[in-house]
Design goal:
mainly beta; six-stranded antiparallel β-sheet; about 10% helix; globular
Length: about 90
């Protein structure tokens, strides 16, 4: 219960929106470049926390739990379903 209080108190400091970028997964082991953009979505804070414990964002068919400290997408759905096989979700720079 104490950790939930910490999450709630930090919710005031997380950004109001992010741009989520959906890309193909890494092509080869050790390949650092993810090529191409399959879809982008502007997501806005819902004021709720997802099952992951991080703030929930939603918009343009994407729902994402995002860790504002590390800027990591911890959980994501696309049009109400899991991402297609081979897709990854990241946040746009900036």
């Amino acid at each position: 219960m104490a950790s939930l209080g910490r999450m709630e108190s930090s919710s005031a400091s997380h950004p109001a929106s992010y741009t989520v970028v959906l890309r193909p997964a890494l092509a080869e082991p050790g390949d650092s470049a993810r090529r191409g953009v399959l879809r982008t979505a502007l997501v806005e804070a819902t004021g709720e926390f997802g099952a992951s414990g991080y703030p929930r964002y939603a918009g343009e068919g994407v729902q994402a739990d995002i860790d504002p400290r590390t800027r990591t997408v911890e959980a994501v759905t696309l049009d109400g379903a899991e991402l297609p096989y081979g897709w990854v979700a990241q946040l746009a720079d900036g």
